[in-house]
Write a structure and sequence with these properties.
- The structure holds 2 protein chains of 2 kinds.
- Chain A is mainly beta.
- In chain A, strands 2, 4, 5, 9, 10 and 11 form a 6-stranded mixed sheet that branches.
- Chain A is globular, with a radius of gyration of 14 Å.
- In chain B, strands 2, 4, 5, 6, 9, 10 and 11 form a 7-stranded mixed sheet that branches. Chain B has a 4-stranded antiparallel sheet with strand order 1-3-8-7, with no helix packed on it.
- In chain B, strand 5 and strand 6 form a beta hairpin.
- The radius of gyration of chain B is 13 Å and the shape is globular.
- Classes of the chains: A mainly beta, B mainly beta.
- The interface between A and B is medium-sized, with 22 and 28 residues.
Chain lengths: 114, 117
């Protein structure tokens, strides 16, 4: 079936460097994408979203890029801080589809090296 | 404070003993859903509810029931739990505005870690 996945289960970066977390999706009908952050022992937290009519969206220290041609989504975190250490999930939605919910990827664990 | 509250946070039970995990949100959200999170599988939707008295199956509904008698509450019921339902469960809610995707800015509870022995 359709799935959303992440290329790497773990990503280790130096504090202060930029982080890039990647996600590939396979449902070409998906038109809405979200990145969630899940810290240890907590539920997922919304970070940023993007609709399929955009290819880039910026938030505070985060940028999401969408390449619909290759069905690729990425989350860029600028100047990574220790508090960014978490598991990051991408999620996709086909808002015109019958199932009215998000499909989540498996997650990437971002580890910050001091 | 806007929040989604799940109870209990941790539960160990035996096979076949009915249990209910409660979920309550104080944001007047219409849309609520339940997910289970398993290693290597990410978050998978169990059931969702578009509004009071409106519920529907997600991707993995087998062995679960839900109800939505009030807008704020969305309990998850396991009538006869089995060991394969050992998992981390999350309840989520979001405001479904006109034209907005259902899970826009979903707020998640803290999670309920269930072990069925």
């Amino acid at each position: 079936g359709e799935s959303v996945g992440l290329h790497l289960p773990t990503l280790s970066v130096q504090e202060g460097d930029n982080s890039i977390i990647n996600c590939a999706y396979s449902n070409s009908a998906s038109d809405y994408f979200i990145w969630y952050k899940q810290e240890s022992g907590k539920g997922p937290q919304f970070i940023i979203d993007i609709r399929s009519n955009m290819d880039k969206r910026q938030g505070q220290r985060v940028t999401v890029l969408l390449n619909k041609t290759v069905k690729h989504l990425s989350l860029q975190i600028a100047a990574t801080q220790p508090g960014d250490s978490a598991v990051y999930f991408c999620a996709e939605l086909d808002s015109g589809g019958g199932a009215d919910g998000l499909t989540f990827g498996k997650g990437t664990h971002l580890i910050i090296q001091p | 404070e806007a929040q989604v509250t799940q109870n209990p946070r941790y539960l160990i039970t035996v096979t076949g003993k009915k249990l209910t995990v409660t979920c309550s949100q104080n944001m007047n959200h219409e849309y609520m859903s339940w997910y289970r999170q398993d290693p290597g599988l990410g978050l998978r939707q169990i059931y969702y509810s578009m509004n009071v008295e409106v519920t529907d199956k997600g991707d993995v509904p087998e062995g679960y029931k839900v109800s939505r008698k009030e807008k704020r509450n969305f309990p998850l019921i396991l009538e006869s739990p089995s060991p394969n339902q050992t998992s981390l469960y999350f309840c989520a809610s979001s405001l479904k505005g006109q034209g907005a995707p259902a899970d826009t800015e979903a707020f998640f509870g803290q999670g309920t870690r269930l072990t069925v022995v």
